[in-house]
Amino acid sequence: MSDSNDATKKLIEVRGLKKHFPIRRGLARRQIGAVKAVDGLDFAIYEGETLGLVGESGCGKSTTGRLILQLLHPTAGEVLLNGRNLTTLSPTELRQTRRDMQIIFQDPYASLNPRMTIGEIVGEPLRVHDVGNAVSRKNRVAELLNMVGLDSRFDGRYPHEFSGGQRQRVGIARALASNPRFIVADEPMSALDVSIQAQIVNLLDDLKRQLGLTYLFISHDLSMVRYLSDRVAVMYLGQIVEMGGRSAVYERPLHPYTQGLLAAIPVPDPDKEARRQHAILQGDVPNPANPPQACRFHPRCPLATELCQQETPVFRNLGDPDAAHWVACHHAQ
Questions:
Q1: pTM above 0.90?
Q2: Mean pLDDT in residue range 98-114
């Protein structure tokens, strides 16, 4: 599979990535099945871009982010950072590599140690990786706090003294401490007030331009993804069903699932909203421990035929040669 960014260097490559969580029962804890949280992903993230990963809750988005960072070990597949396979590294080698890749967590209340000051939290990556001395670390912490819009004089305060938006800024500063090249932003706005979300989105966008960062931006908020992302991947039940440039996916969605997600976004113009056709998704997401055969979306798809129940759709490019638009659907055209 190739993408529209062939002239740009691939920073992250994901090949055949799977994560199956075992289901165990009985006193002997015998495995009787597995939850297929991620079930065969192939994609690349290019230097300097933001790839948006969207889908309903439980589709495997956050698991994918953690697998890329090796916070979870995959059941199968490879994750390459600059051509280096992260899944085969020793713990020591992986620890050294973590300087280049960091995560911004979803919940700013749970992701900060309440017993540590803000200065200690932001400076912890510097201490772990043995960067500089005490004076240079303190200066770096002050620089990072100012970079994310916080007063450096707050470094002696504790997380409970800050609002949710301020705590998320602390989390962003911590992620930036080791000068990473790649950051997984795992739904960083979902726990924040709507009035604060736009500030954090703008901050992430500004930092990307200033520092040349590459993001995997995970979210179920399609409006946020459209604003931040260069390319968009739509995930359903552990698999990517559509992937392409932001404009292509939002203006010409090819997969019925993508069409249903976009139809759920309200339009601020009442007249346009009244005239618009809604492709409402029916039913619930199937059990990932026992996903449907062939096309996993067929039980909820308005276009489903017998073919969809018998054959797995090929992930094919229906875009222009210089603007790839990939989709896994028998009926897409």
A1: yes
A2: 93
